[in-house]
Amino acid sequence: MKALVVDDEPLARRELRRMLDAFPAVQVVGEAGNVDEARVRIEELSPDVVFLDIQMPGGTGFDLLTQLDRVPRIVFTTAYDQYAVKAFDVNALDYLLKPIEPERLATTLRKILATPPHAATDAPLEQLFIRDGPRCWFVPLREVSVFTSEGNYVRLLWGKERPLLGRSLAALEVKLDPKRFFRANRSQIVNLEFIEQVELGAGGRLHVQMRDGPEIEVSRRQARLFRARATVG
Amino acid sequence: MIFASQPWSKASALWGPVSLAGVGLTHLLRWLIRRHGWLSLPPFALLGRVIAATLLIATASYLLTQALSQAVYGTPVAPITAAFYHRLSSSGQLRNLFIIILGVHAAWVAIYLAFAVLRHRHQTELRQAQLGKALQTAELRLLKSQLNPHFLFNALNGLRSLIADEPARARDAVTHLARTLRYSLASGDEDLLSLERELEMVDDYLALESMRLADRLRVERDIAPESRTARIPAMLLQTLVENAIKHGIAALKPGGTVRITAQVVEKELILRVVNPRPDDTTNKTSQGVGLRNATERLRLLFGSRASLRLDLSQDGQATAEVRLPV
Q1: Which of A85, A114, A177, A213 is most buried, judging by how many CB atoms fall within 10 Å of its CB?
Q2: Which residues in chain A touch residue B149, judged by CB atoms under 8 angstroms apart?
Q3: Is residue A121 part of a domain?
Q4: Which residue, of A79, A114, A149, is where some domain finishes?
Q5: Which pLDDT tens digit goes with each residue over B36-60?
Q6: Could you tell me the pTM of the whole model?
Q7: Residue of A101, A24, A26, A12 lying closest to A56 (CA atoms)
Q8: Nearest by Cα to B297 from B144, B102, B163, B174
Q9: Is the CB of B250 less than 8 angstroms away from the CB of A12?
């Protein structure tokens, strides 16, 4: 398992590397001292797990996550920001308190090694880290019903939440699983598994009733594609 | 003479118990007032209760007087009363007797009540003054800057790393950490310490931060000799320096220089901490907490004679300035 150590303090990085030496299953493939460095390292090394400090110059660990397409397994390392980590809506995050206790590190690593590694880099996105105002989420994309373009942003319809993603619909579309998601019109992508009913509309358009409420119009051009898929699928 | 007509033994057999009963009953009233906290009641509620109680007590005394008089003299109207009001009918005599007894009791109760109310008010005021002072002390203690846990745990983490690779530096770090902690704990006992003493602590603190930040942290000092004896709130300069590092140096990738200057101008100590800062200080709110506490502490200790100002008008630079009387 490849690991990346991100911390702005050289001593902290050195200490964590030394502690990780005790686990032969983990190879530290690199380290970074700030958010920008970390992003570059993650893209070039694609580590399986990132040990991530929260307070760093030029941005926090949370800022880094929002900038990543493919978020590796994250273990936050923090001296006193555990409240910030715990405040998350998801429990998908591990954290270690500095100075790190060897037993806690062993427990965390066991847990990570027991879960299957992330898919290959060219596989479709499965989850996104989204920060909208003060709130953060790891959003599993298969739970998202509709993506709606809002200028250069994308609004997700995800259960009761409506988080805003800081990228364009076009940029997101190419990363999504084409088997699951369908571009319904210029500004919307729908999750096919959330479709409850399809009705014919005027001029060759389709009206799609989503399971969680909204009715989406499929443009004429896309409707042809949709029918083709429906007959094949 | 009226008194000549009656033997003293009979008079005392009547008026002795009546006086005792009066004292006992008013004492019972006093107990009631204290027990049920009547003095804390609104004025009319207190008055109503006391008037009712006084009427009851007076009635009891009156009935007792009649009964004893009957037993001693064989008539409900004691001879002294009869002699006093010899021109009235016996019912008129009794009515006047009741009025006299009521008047005596009412006067007695009124005197007691006036005294008790005054004392109660005095005690309340005293308690409130003490409470206010305690509150201020507690506030001051709360505002006293303590070491930031973030700093503490990061220092320990760095120390853990040094132990294996550089034991000599690790030993130094333990000394710095111990001195920083000791100073921080002792600062709870005294409000004001000399700038000299505070500077020693800041040096220990900076040594620990240098361990973490390595060459990203540089420090310059310009301390005028006459300012060293000035007395400042404990941990004040430390708060300014910690702020400069947290929001300035640590937030910048290349780090930077913290400049600490102190001078005395016209009986006023001017302390300045200058540091570079990122252009977009997004977390302006968190920057406020430590400094706001320090400002409040200065206000409690010096009133309007001291001030703390954070100047962010220059791009990429922050200047914290404290002025206080020497």
Answers
A1: A85
A2: 79-80
A3: no
A4: A114
A5: 888 888 888 888 998 999 999 999 9
A6: 0.67
A7: A12
A8: B144
A9: no
